[in-house]
Amino acid sequence: MNRIIRIIFLDILKNKIVLAYTIILGILSWSSFGLEDNSAKGLLTILNIILFTVPLVSILFATIYLYNSSEFIELLLSQPIKRKKIWLSLFLGLSLSMVLAFFIGAGIPLLVYAPDSVGIMMLVVGCLISLVFVALAFLSSILTRDKSKGIGIAIMSWLYFALLFDGIVLFLLFQFSDYPIEKAMVAVTALSPIDLARIQILLQLDASAMMGYTGAIFKDFFGTSLGLLISFLLLCLWVVVPFFISLIKFKNKDL
Amino acid sequence: MKIVLYICLLFSSLLHANVIEVGPNKPIKSIKKAIALAKAGDTVMVHKGLYKEGNIIINKRIVFLGKNVPVLDGQKKYEVLSIKADSVVVSGFKVIKSGYATLEDPCGIKVYNRNYVVIQNNVLDDNFFGIYIQNGSHCIIKNNRLTAYGKEEQSIGNGIHCWKSDSLQIIGNTISGHRDGIYFEFVTNSVIWRNISTRNVRYGLHFMFSNDDAYISNIFKNNGAGVAVMFTKNVKMFNNFFEENWGDAAYGLFLKEISDSYIIGNKFSKNTSGIHMEGTNRIQVEKNVFEANGWGMKILASCSDNIIKNNNFLGNTFDISTNGSLVLNTFNNNYWDKYEGYDLDKNGVGDVPFHPLSLFAVLTERNPSAMLLFRSFMITLLDKSERILPSITPDNFVDNSPLMHSLPL
């Protein structure tokens, strides 16, 4: 298994795209931190990267990579290796490279300029978001054999989580504003990994507003260490569940 | 000769006030007895020790001095020190454990309808009310340290409580753990200067119906609900710090029905709301710093003719918020770190007006749980388009001359 991971990891490194992704993340982060003497602007830039760029690149790159390496996967399948092992190694290789790219590109400037709770929270959440969207890529690429369809599904799911979902939540909030829906809304955020990530970071970044005004729901849930733990577990579930579904499908798939 | 000597002695006894010493090792062991022996103008010097004498009443014009911090204990039953004479000086005591009663409000030190009383350099610990000036004038409360351990509003009194007084000076006191750090009601022409009021259950400073007062260079930090100034005119608030007042109804500075006042040179940082204004008129908000607050300023539609100029707004979640579409206040020459305009003629003033009210601030005002979506990409897009073409936010809510660089405040 280690050897397969190493092969995939090296293959991805040879592929210049991840390198370019790392460099772009690096340029964005360093320049936005260097722009002003306070780290607020830089943190906001990285927040947007985490909520927008990281999911897009992770899901697209992983999906395309999976389709392109279908021959390699078939070759591996002809060997006496368990399917589970192959799929898991692919996942580990891909997610390792995406996480590494994020860590080097955005994580190091974060640790240099904002080595406090905000920076560390962003770093952890960014890595988790990379993992989540690699897992979603695995799911979307296993759903269909058709490459263009698979990439389409990947882009759609990104669009849904990054944009549509918040629109729906906003709509619900205002349609049902006469009802006590605050608690339900907290539960609804669990349905989107990007929202979970965003709220975790916001609680550190805009503490005065988040902990104060809408106090009740935020403080009582996300503000407590139990809430923090639960939302991290939920993020982890967002990694495990899509990958697990794809694994079952891969095991039973007629190639 | 003898007669001359007697006359001299007589005069000298008139001129020289006596010092009556009280202490465990002195002939007089009881403070009450010493006060009974004293004449107006005498000094009662209390030496180190623990004195449990119930309610001590000072009803003569004396100087009441503590040497090496003697402790006056109210045993949780009595008011400790009651001052019922003009021009009394109380200095150097540690006053602890006043009684608790909701009808009489027993205090550490209370002044009853008297003038020119000086209370300084005392330590007050675990009292119901700390220092209470009732209907006094020209009193000075200086360099006292007041500590209490209040958990809820009902079970604890105020630190420095002033009622129906005039020309007071509250200087350099440190107050924590009371209900309101400093409480002013019907107090006029007074000054509150260089006090530190922290971790009080309700307000750091509570201020009502008190005209023509000034509070300058105080620190109000981490109080239950910040500072409230209500139903007052001609207040001057200069160079104070309002910090870390967090909560649903917590404000750095809460203004209600205030008019003709000045808020200049203050710093508001890390509050849920920096300033909350309700029904205020003709207030000048100038040269303040609003930093890392949830809401820099909340100006409700009931405010009019306020001038907000030359302030720095830095790193607030929302700079300004309001609850209506009526805008009767002016914003000028402020620095907003969210300003994205340009300055072609390089005069330091941005060429495009700044709309400090974001769409999302309006949305959360209507529906607080929308805060859940803050900084989401969707919201950022909506905000951007709203700033270019205001439709929901009032378009006259504008700073026509936003500064390009922050003011050195």
How would you describe this structure in keywords?
heterodimer; A: 255 residues; mainly alpha; B: 409 residues; mainly beta; Pectate Lyase C-like; 25-stranded parallel β-sheet; 13-stranded parallel β-sheet; 4 helices; 38 strands; elongated
Q: CATH superfamily assignment of chain B?
A: Single-stranded right-handed beta-helix, Pectin lyase-like
* Largest interface by Cβ-Cβ < 8 Å: A-B, 39 and 33 residues
Q: Approximately how much beta-strand content do the residues of chain A carry?
A: under 5%
Q: How many separate domains make up the residues of chain B?
A: 1
How would you characterize the largest beta sheet of chain B? 25 strands, parallel
Question: Residue ranges of chain A: pLDDT <50 for 5 or more in a row?
Answer: none
Rounded average pLDDT of chain B: 89
Supply the CATH architecture of chain B.
3 Solenoid
Write the element-wise H/E pattern of chain A from the N-terminal end onward: HHHHHHHHHHHH
Record field, number of beta strands of chain A:
0
- Helical proportion of chain B, percent range: 10-25%
Just give the CATH class of chain B. Answer: Mainly Beta
State the low-pLDDT regions of chain B, or none.
Answer: none
The 3D shape of chain A can be described as globular
Terminus-to-terminus distance of chain B: 73 Å
What quaternary form is this? heterodimer
- How would a textbook summarize the main sheet of chain A? none
Keywords (chain B): Signal
Pfam families (chain B): NosD
InterPro entries (chain B): NosD_copper_fam, NosD_dom, Para_beta_helix_rpt-2, PbH1, Pectin_lyas_fold, Pectin_lyase_fold/virulence
Protein name (chain B): Nitrous oxide reductase family maturation protein NosD
Give a structural overview.
The complex is a heterodimer of chains A (255) and B (409). Chain A is mainly alpha-helical and 255 residues long. In chain A, 86% of the residues lie in helices and 0% in strands. Chain A has one domain (2-251). Chain A is globular and about 60 Å long. Chain B is elongated and about 100 Å long. Chain B has a 25-stranded parallel β-sheet that branches. In chain B, strands 3-6-9-12-15-18-21-24-27-29-32-35-38 form a 13-stranded parallel β-sheet, with no helix packed on it. Chain B has one domain: Single-stranded right-handed beta-helix, Pectin lyase-like (Pectate Lyase C-like). Chain B starts with a helix and ends in a 21-residue tail after the last helix. Chain B has 409 residues and is mainly β. Chain A binds chain B through residues 38, 40, 44, 47-48, 51-52, 162-163, 166-167, 169-170, 173-174, 177, 181-182, 185-186, 189, 195, 198-199, 202, 205-218, and chain B through 246-248, 250, 270-273, 292-295, 314-315, 317-318, 337, 364, 366-380. Chain B: This is Nitrous oxide reductase family maturation protein NosD. Chain B: Keywords: Signal. Chain B: Residues 1-17 form the signal peptide.
